[in-house]
Design goal:
Shape of chain A: flat
Number of domains of chain A: 2
Largest sheet of chain B: 2 strands, antiparallel
Number of helices of chain B: 13
Strand content of chain B: under 5%
Strand content of chain A: under 5%
Structural class of chain B: mainly alpha
Oligomer: heterodimer
CATH superfamily of one domain in chain B: MetI-like
Largest interface: A-B, 80 and 79 residues
Distance between the termini of chain A: 74 Å
CATH topology of the largest domain in chain A: MetI-like fold
Number of helices of chain A: 11
Helix content of chain B: over 70%
Order of helices and strands of chain B: HEEHHHHHHHHHHHH
CATH superfamily of the largest domain in chain A: MetI-like
Radius of gyration of chain B: 24 Å
CATH class of the largest domain in chain A: Mainly Alpha
Largest sheet of chain A: none
Strand order of the largest sheet of chain B: 1-2
CATH class of one domain in chain B: Mainly Alpha
Chain lengths: ~290, ~290
């Protein structure tokens, strides 16, 4: 008797369990579906504007609004636009030189601060972090006021000086992070093997730092290409960069030429950044 | 490990390493910073020049209703942006953390790609979409919700500025939350479940408090640049949704009132530095506790 009744309840229990399990997995499925859909929407939000921007660069109409037909004429207009050409040249000059200068200076100060202990270190730390914290607009106007005070003509030099001033901090932060993860074991081993300081640095420390330095340089280059606010206030006539040019173009009239320019800039960023990330990872592994 | 420079040689090495960076930061950051601070106490001359006479008028002037309104609007816009970024970004980061580790890196890269592209371009995209003849209205007309005649423009509103800021800074929030959610100890969640806490309770009593550092750093990463924003309100607000950044820029442009502009910049920087200081102190306390 005690055998039968439990077995019967056992059966219903099993059935109920089965149902409950089915229900639970159904709910889980639903939750997963909902979550995936949600993530899809977020990706859509991030990418839809970019895709629309690209699509309307091929619009035949003079405006990037109603779709009238496919054309490549805006790219032709863009290549004939000598102002854009000049802006591209300026952008590359500014980004390359400010990246080189800030990578060298930033790496040096990072090594100094990370390697040595000294009394004024908190001051140096504060000075390094400040350009990252304060808003672009404040940095832009303080440099403008300063350049005007020392009567320096605004132009490519002032833009490069300004870009180096904010890039040093970012390079230093990235290189310091790399140094902190490395530790000193390798260097100690080198000096145990009678390498002098100079040899130890160039043969051991520097090669190990390369991924951090490359990462810092990439970040500096991207920030420099991206910057509008600080460049806008520290540039003079004839030293416009691409972001400044784009904002200027949107103030006049909006044509698909801006879309064409944006598309080319998007494509270069979207191929260059993953490429350099991949190169960095390779450098880190070897 | 950091070492004390003992020998003369080591001291020289340290000096050589630090001096170019210090030179640059002192000349092209610290001095301009001080200059702005000094200018903020000066008076504007009749023709936009400077009068070297110390006074607090510029700060008193900021207390005007007009400027206070812009200041408060900046705070509200930045706060709404931050809250919406958190509400969208946190579940997104949670979803990403739940994916198998192989796909996670790809998902991260796909999230970060828009972040790496020029933000002027991304803001311009919204200017195109939100215009009267833009793609949103085209969609609404196609769906017969509105007609071509009464299509509104979404540009030059607070909403457009908030949308633009969310678009630019959402990724920062997702990345910050993602970092703290992946660091979460899963066994604690299982323990909560074993103790019969329902999922909602588990989330609010365990998950949320443990990922609070990510939420805080994400919020600061979004709030600080939103508060000091200049390009987004300029391009999407069109002078009708001015924020403090635009106010500063006007003083160095049309208004040509450098001392007043310097005073507003000083106020802005003090707010930012104070906020970040609070954040670092919070982080340190967090570290001490764990």
């Amino acid at each position: 008797m005690t055998d039968q009744i439990p077995s019967k309840t056992h059966q219903t229990q099993l059935r109920l369990d089965y149902l409950a399990k089915g229900y639970a997995s159904f709910i889980n499925r639903l939750k997963q579906l909902f979550f995936n859909g949600y993530a899809g929407l977020v990706y859509l939000f991030l990418y839809a504007p970019i895709i629309l921007l690209v699509v309307y660069s091929f619009n035949e109409s003079r405006f990037p609004t109603y779709w009238t037909g496919f054309t490549l004429q805006w790219y032709r207009v863009l290549f004939d636009d000598h102002l854009v050409g000049a802006a591209l040249k300026n952008t590359l000059i500014v980004a390359t030189s400010s990246t080189i200068i800030s990578t060298i200076i930033g790496t040096m100060i990072a090594i100094g601060v990370e390697r040595y202990r000294f009394r004024t270190k908190p001051v140096v730390d504060g000075l390094l972090i400040m350009p990252i914290i304060i808003p672009d607009i404040a940095m832009a106007i303080m440099l403008l006021v300063f350049f005007k005070l020392i009567k320096m003509n605004l132009g490519l030099y002032t833009i490069i000086i300004a870009h180096v001033a904010f890039n040093i901090s970012f390079v230093a932060i990235i290189v310091r992070a790399r140094m902190a993860t490395l530790g000193t074991a390798m260097e100690e081993a080198a000096s145990d093997l009678y390498a002098n300081e100079w040899q130890t640095f160039w043969r051991v420390t520097f090669p190990l730092l390369i991924p951090g330095i490359l990462g810092g340089a990439l970040f500096a280059f991207t920030l420099s290409l991206d910057d509008f606010v600080i460049t806008n206030f520290t540039s003079g006539p004839g030293s416009t960069t691409l972001p400044v040019r784009i904002v200027g173009m949107t103030r006049r009239n909006i044509t698909p030429e801006i879309n064409a320019l944006s598309t080319l800039m998007l494509i270069s960023a979207m191929t260059l950044v993953p490429l350099s990330l991949w190169l960095q990872r390779r450098a880190k592994m070897s | 490990m950091a070492i004390e420079p003992r020998t003369r040689r080591e001291r020289i090495t340290l000096g050589v390493l630090l001096s170019p960076g210090l030179f640059w930061l002192i000349f092209f950051f610290a001095l301009p910073f001080l200059l702005i601070f000094i200018y903020s106490f000066l008076d504007r001359g009749k023709f936009g020049g400077l009068v070297w006479e110390f006074q607090f008028d510029n700060y008193i002037r900021f207390a005007d209703q007009l400027y206070i309104r812009i200041f408060i609007r900046s705070i509200i816009i930045a706060a709404i942006t931050t809250v919406i970024c958190l509400l969208i970004g946190y579940p997104m980061a949670y979803w990403m953390a739940l994916q198998p580790s192989r796909t996670r890196n790809t998902l991260l890269l796909v999230i970060m790609l828009p972040f790496w592209t020029n933000f002027v371009i991304r803001t311009y995209a919204w200017r195109m979409i939100l215009a009267r003849q833009g793609q949103i209205n085209q969609l609404l007309i196609a769906l017969n919700i509105i007609t071509k005649e009464n299509a509104p423009t979404y540009l030059n509103t607070n909403g457009a500025v908030i949308l633009g800021l969310i678009y630019i800074w959402l990724v920062a929030m997702i990345l910050a939350c993602y970092a703290s959610i992946t660091g979460l100890d899963r066994s604690l969640l299982e323990a909560a479940q074993d103790l019969f806490a329902n999922p909602v309770r588990t989330f609010f009593r365990v998950t949320l408090p443990l990922t609070l550092p990510g939420i805080i750093s994400g919020s600061i990463l979004v709030f600080v640049p939103s508060f000091g924003a200049f390009v987004t309100p300029d391009m999407l607000g069109g002078g009708k949704a001015d924020m403090i950044g635009n106010l500063i820029s006007q003083q160095f442009g049309e208004a040509s009132d450098w001392p007043f502009g310097s005073a507003i910049s000083t106020i802005l920087m003090v707010v930012m530095l104070f906020g970040t200081l609070l954040y670092f102190r919070g982080l340190r306390r967090e570290k001490v506790q764990s």
